[in-house]
Structures are given as structure tokens and as C-alpha cells.
Amino acid sequence: MTRSRIAFIGGGNMARSIIGGLVADGYPPDRLSAADPSAQQRQRLEADFGITTSGDNDVLARAADVVVLAVKPQVMPDIARDLAPAIAAATPLVVSVAAGIRQDALARWLDYSGPVVRCMPNTPALIQCGMSALHANPAVTAEQRELATMLLSATGSVVWVEEESQLDVVTGISGSGPAYYFAFMEAMERAALARGLPPETARQLVLGTALGAARMANEAGEDPATLRANVTSKGGTTAAALEAFEQGGLDALVDRAVDAARKRSIELGDALGED
Questions:
Q1: Of the residues 135, 167, 199, the one at which a domain ends
Q2: Do 159 and 132 share a structural domain?
Q3: pLDDT tens across 11-51, in order?
Q4: What CATH number did the domain enclosing 233 receive?
Q5: Of 167, 199, 229, which residue is a domain's last?
Q6: How many domains does the chain have?
Q7: Using CA atoms, how far apart are residues 205 and 196, in angstroms rounded to an integer?
Q8: How high is the pLDDT of residue 1?
Q9: Distance of alpha carbon 259 from alpha carbon 166, whole angstroms
Q10: Are residues 100 and 128 in the same domain?
Q11: Cα gap 178→100, rounded to integer Å
Q12: Over the stretch 212-234, which tens digit does the pLDDT of each residue have?
């Protein structure tokens, strides 16, 4: 797989995170390239990772086995249409990390019936702790699925979904999810401050608790319900707090939040897919 030539169209934060993760994992920099209109961005990518860069999308796409579309959704229609001749010539695996752009729209703009993988990453990918969900069209081979998995694993964990519509649910869980945890941490900090803890102490307690709970959930090999039960003594302080959550309708509130994000993802996908 380290022989595949991977070209990134767009050299922004998401492309940098994937490139940085690949290079850190030992992927040869001379097999990586990135196109970006900003000379400053190109210089940074060259200096930081030792890869080839260009201001010409077409040149890099024509020489690639994998083309990663890492541009803003609003400019994707124009970028894809301009790339269509190069994609037709190279017949690469196309990987899109542009939020909301559906595969049928991308295939139409590219005029391409070849292999396309759509990815829904999240912002912790920027520190190689991301969670990405991928969906492949029928033209993607088993080897290309492995290649896409390797590509996005450079930014964290990867799961595959069988139905593209499931990516709208993914958006409501992992795509928007980091903001939910940040909001919860904000609320905990405010509660601590209201009860007299100094700001720095409140921040340390909240962040340390969040990190420890996440690591336990990831490493303990038990589901969240079991972990919660293990730290909840009948009649104790944790039980009192959890009862307050239950009385406040936490489960229903989370369900409504996730569904609101899912519905908005569908709306944005409809709007972004228009010609």
C-alpha cells in the first residue's frame, strides 16, 4: 500500500492532519502530494512533511492512484468539474472528506462511475484522535477499502457504514459529537464555579475527569452502562446526580439533539447537491 500515489486536492487542516499522520506512520513522503492555490500553504506542507506540492490540481490528479478531495463543500462543484478530465484519465480511487457532499452529486460533477469513498471525519482528527465513518460505492474494491481505511486511520479510528444515508446519523453522533462533550464540560465548569471552586481548579477537574472517563470507556472492555453501574453506589452521591439527570430527561434531550443534527445534515446535503 505504501506504493500508492496519493494526491490531496486542498492543503488545509484536514489534509494536513491526514498527511501528517501518514508520514508519522512511515508512509513515504515521495508518494504524497498536495495541490493548493496558496503558495504559503504549499511551502508549509513541503517544509513540514517533505511532500511534493503544486498549484495545479489537474497535474497531481493525473499522476495519482488515490485522489483525496479535501476542499470546502461550497467550492466542490467547481473543483470537481474542473478535475473531471484528469479523473477520467487516471481512474483513481476518489476519497471525499467534504462534509455533506453525497456520492451521486460528486459522481455527476466528476462525470465518473469509478470508485468513490465518502468520509465523515470529526475535528479531533486534527490531533490524530479522530473518529471517521466511511462509505464506499459499488465500484470500490476490497483492496481500495483497505487503502481508504489506512488513509483515514492516520487521523484516528475508522468505521464503515453500508448505507450512505447512515452518514447523516454519523454526523449527529461523531461529526457534531465533540461539541456536545465540550458543552457538557462547560456546564460542569460553571457548576463548579458557582459552588466556589477557583477557575483553574474547576478546569483541571473537568478535563481530567473527561479524559479519564474516555480512556476507561475505550480500554476497560465493558460497555458504558456497566462502567456507570460500577461507580454508582446505591444511595450515594453519584446515584443522586444521575437521578437528577434522569428527572431532567437527559436521554430524551440527547436523542432530540442527535436527530436535529441528522435532519440538518440531510438539509445541507440536499442544498449542496444542487447543480
A1: 167
A2: yes
A3: 999 999 999 999 999 999 999 999 999 999 999 999 999 99
A4: 1.10.3730.10
A5: 167
A6: 2
A7: 13
A8: 57
A9: 12
A10: yes
A11: 18
A12: 999 999 999 999 999 999 999 99
Q: Per-residue pLDDT tens for 169-223?
A: 999 999 999 999 999 999 999 999 999 999 999 999 999 999 999 999 999 999 9
Q: In sequence order, what DSSP letters do the residues of 221-272 get, joined into one string?
A: -S-HHHHHHHT--TTSHHHHHHHHHHHTTHHHHHHHHHHHHHHHHHHHHHHH
CA 77 to chain centre: 21
In the chain, DSSP assigns E strands to 6-9, 32-35, 52-54, 66-69, 93-96, 116-120, 130-136, 156-160
CA 197 from centre of chain: 35
> Domain check: are 58 and 91 in the same one?
yes
Residue 3 has pLDDT above 90, yes or no: no
For residue 213, tell me if it sits in a domain: yes
Averaged pLDDT, 124-139: 96
Strand partners, 200: none
State residue 205 phi and psi, 5-degree precision: -65, -45
Same domain, 94 and 142: yes
Pairing assessment for the beta strands 6-9 and 66-69 based on DSSP bridges: parallel
Asked if 17 and 126 count as a contact pair (C-beta separation under 8 A), the reply is yes
Q: Is residue 1 part of a domain?
A: no
pLDDT band per the 50, 70, 90 thresholds, residue 2: low
- Tell whether 217 and 148 lie within a shared domain: no
Which domain covers residue 162, as residue numbers?
A: 6-167
